[in-house]
Write a structure and sequence with these properties.
Layout (H helix, E strand, L loop, with lengths): L8 H6 L5 E7 L6 H11 L9 H6 L20 H7 L6 H10 L4 E11 L10 E9 L3 E3 L2 E13 L5 E12 L41 H8 L4 E5 L5 E2 L14 E5 L3 E10 L11 E8 L4 E6 L12 E10 L2 E8 L3
Parallel strand pairs: 12-14
Antiparallel strand pairs: 1-3, 2-6, 3-5, 4-5, 5-6, 7-8, 7-9, 10-11, 10-13, 11-12, 13-14
Length: 334
């Protein structure tokens, strides 16, 4: 049973507002070229300033810089260190423990806003400090009753200077409980005495994080159109969508229609955490479209054992509910 106001639960949660839950500490590794290479290859980002020293200097930079989207990655501590933080009663571990008392044991990230102060260069050693901004009252969501926890993360270099700030919001929610089937009694065993039982409504697929930069993409998907953002300055295609071209820096863009053909660049079979909206096996793939951009999507009409890297696939549309349409891909057979 969830704690009540009489237990002082709301007060204890509220006391975390303004509290530092993660003191400044450096990440496990300084900014380095091998990790940048893995990142840009996975993201399909071909901006030469991330790997080519001469190209970076030609733009006026002192040398190779890391993609801004990697800022948080440099501070990720790894699984063992993350588990150790859960034992910190006054910090993040304490907040998680109080949330768990209320049954808020599941979590999903909902929003991230970055303010970048400078680019990160090879050799920078980034640390992060995290302070709780607010813990919301309980809200009803499609995932279940939950609370939005908003924190501010300040990213610091080895000299203690701010390189970026991040406003980070997560939903800690109480998973919906599915009704357990009741054992049949002798009286209900016969067809004449059996009473029809109403089926529980299907669980909605979690909503994507829609913002000003990607809303056009989801609107096109609602119309069963797969589009790719295109820079009108240099003509480069890019995905995920963003406000600025990483190649020429232009803010002007339009869209190009994708053919719907592509190949499997990589894939995983997700087993945990389980979610009623995703029946197993849940195949998540990185598909390289014919146009050259890559898209994280689902594979259908194929088993995990049948999936192969470089397998040709074609677009289909998934309409899990009236308010959502998403592109999925099916293998192309000869």
């Amino acid at each position: 049973m969830a704690p009540t106001e009489q237990d002082g639960y709301e007060k204890r949660l509220g006391e975390f507002a303004g509290r530092e839950v993660l003191p400044p500490r450096p990440g496990p590794d300084p900014v380095n070229v091998p990790m940048i290479r893995h990142w840009v290859e996975a993201m399909g980002d071909r901006n030469p300033v991330y790997l080519d020293e001469a190209a970076a200097r030609a733009t006026g930079r002192a040398g190779i810089v890391a993609p801004a989207s990697m800022t948080q990655a440099w501070t990720m501590p790894g699984y063992a260190a993350t588990e150790a933080r859960r034992d910190d009663g006054d910090g993040l571990g304490g907040l998680i423990a109080v949330l768990a008392e209320g049954g808020y044991t599941s979590v999903v990230a909902t929003d991230s806003e970055f303010d970048f102060h400078r680019e990160l260069t090879v050799g920078d050693h980034v640390g992060v400090r995290e302070v709780v901004e607010s813990v919301s009252p309980e809200k009803k969501t499609a995932l279940g009753a939950g609370r939005f926890v908003t924190t501010e993360r300040t990213y610091l270099d080895q000299h203690g200077e701010v390189v970026a700030r991040q406003r980070w919001r997560m939903l800690w929610f109480r998973p919906r409980q599915s009704a357990s089937p009741q054992p049949a009694s002798p009286q209900s065993a016969s067809p004449q005495s059996e009473t029809p039982r109403a089926e529980a409504p299907p669980m909605l697929r979690p909503r994507p994080a829609v913002n000003r930069d990607n809303a056009f993409w989801f609107e096109a998907a609602r119309e069963h159109r797969l589009v790719i953002q295109r820079c009108t300055g240099c003509g480069a295609l890019r995905h995920p969508p963003g406000p600025c071209c990483p190649g020429c820096g232009s803010y002007a863009w339009d869209t190009a229609e994708a053919s719907g053909r592509g190949r499997v660049h990589s894939f995983v079979v997700s087993h945990h955490p389980r979610h009623p909206a995703f029946p197993p096996p849940h195949l998540v793939a990185l598909v390289e479209l014919e146009e050259g951009t890559r898209l994280v999507t689902n594979l259908v009409g194929v088993t995990p054992e049948e999936v192969e890297i470089d397998m040709p696939v074609a677009l289909e549309w998934l309409d899990p509910d009236p308010d959502l349409s998403l592109p999925v891909f099916r293998p192309v057979t000869a």
